[in-house]
Amino acid sequence: MDEFALIGRYFQPLGKRRADIECGIGDDCAVLEPGAGRLAVTVDTLVEGVHFRVGIRAAALGYRAAAVSLSDLAAMAAQPRYATLALTLPRVDEDWLADFADGLGEALDAAGCALVGGDTTRGPLTVTLQLIGTLDGPAPVRAGAQPGDVVLVSGTLGDAHAALSLPDDAEGDDDRYLRQRFERPTPRIALARDLRGLVQASIDVSDGLLADLGHVARASGVAIAVEAEALPLSPALLRRCGRERALAAAVSGGDDYELVLVVAADRVAEVLARARVLGERLSVIGEVRSGSGVALYDADGRAVTPARGGYDHFA
Ligand code: ADP
Ligand code: MG
Fold it and tell me: What H or E segment, with its residue span, contains residue 226?
């Protein structure tokens, strides 16, 4: 199968006939007519053995590649519109390609995102996905947090990280739940879109909650205080590794792709009400203070030192 047949069979179907797409896959460039407004653009590369393990299911890789970049668009409150894919493959394996395209297409479709172009080359397995979204409100940039603001997070934290330490053959209900939280992170697009204009600053949790909050604190020139007891932990995570390691995974483990939202105190009630209407879990986890750095506190206001590394192995 040559390169063009491969693109035609597996990737052309992920394009869409849409008025805003003048040319998609098949021409020298995609020609797009996004309409009025600004663009939000993001690109991420996933390298086998570095960002995902050798032998990951192809559908999971495709889904995850899309989901992590969709999450970046969500962090900017952008509406996903277009994707381009640079794919480097060691060999042509049609079953693998079909599964990969299925996973990728499922996640892009759910977000209203069309694949409009890309590049296909031979080499070590590498997936580079660029996403373009449109912005119709203020972008909740990392520098937007101010003392007195409240810090919220979507979903639950720590699940994806815990999944990485599961034995391959772990097949209990909790194991399956944790694994799908890693393989199929949920980009919080609907939530981010609904809250646009109400959020001061935002970031998605890719490197770990404290690390990512650190980016916000630095960019905004503020301190962020997080209350350990307020962190949302899934029942599966708690059952599988106990409260202490669950907490360590929640604060230091990455890969959850939940959204941190920094909201002015007088808007928190509205933000929580909107999340409830959407059926999205959203938890208040801390506050912005003057100063610098990110610190974790217990309910009595005492500083907590998060356990590190303790979450790496299941008992
Ligand atoms: P060019 O020689 O102009 O770079 P290519 O031969 O690389 O074109 O690609 C042919 C067409 O297929 C282009 O429209 C390109 O955007 C698209 N394409 C190539 N690889 C992919 C891919 N992995 N996913 C989506 N579109 C792709
Ligand atoms: Mg090319």
Answer: strand 223-227
| Terminal CA-CA length for the chain | 47
Ligand 2 centre distance from Cα of residue 86 (Å): 9
- Residue 70 tokens read as 């969709």
pLDDT digits (tens, 9 = 90+) for 85-132: 999 999 999 999 999 999 999 999 999 999 999 999 999 999 999 999
65 Cβ closer than 6 Å to some ligand 1 atom: no
What sign results for the dihedral spanned by CA atoms 54, 162, 182, 180? positive
Q: How much is the CA Rg of the chain, to the nearest whole Å?
A: 20
Model confidence pLDDT, tens digit, residues 226-240: 999 999 999 999 999
Q: Which residue has the higher pLDDT, 313 or 92?
A: 92
CA of 12 from ligand 1 middle (Å) equals 10
Q: How many Å lie between the centroid of ligand 2 and the Cα of residue 34?
A: 23
Binned at pLDDT 50, 70 and 90, residue 37 comes out as: confident
Please enumerate in sequence order all residues whose Cβ is within 8 A of that of 41, keeping only pairs 6 or more positions apart, or say none.
Answer: 130, 131, 132, 133
The two tokens of residue 251 are 């604060």
Sign of CA dihedral 143, 149, 151, 154: negative
Q: Is 11 in the pocket of ligand 1 (CB under 6 A)?
A: yes
12, 23, 25, 92, best to mutate for ligand 1 pocket (most atoms within 8 Å of CB) = 25
Averaged pLDDT score across all residues of the chain: 94
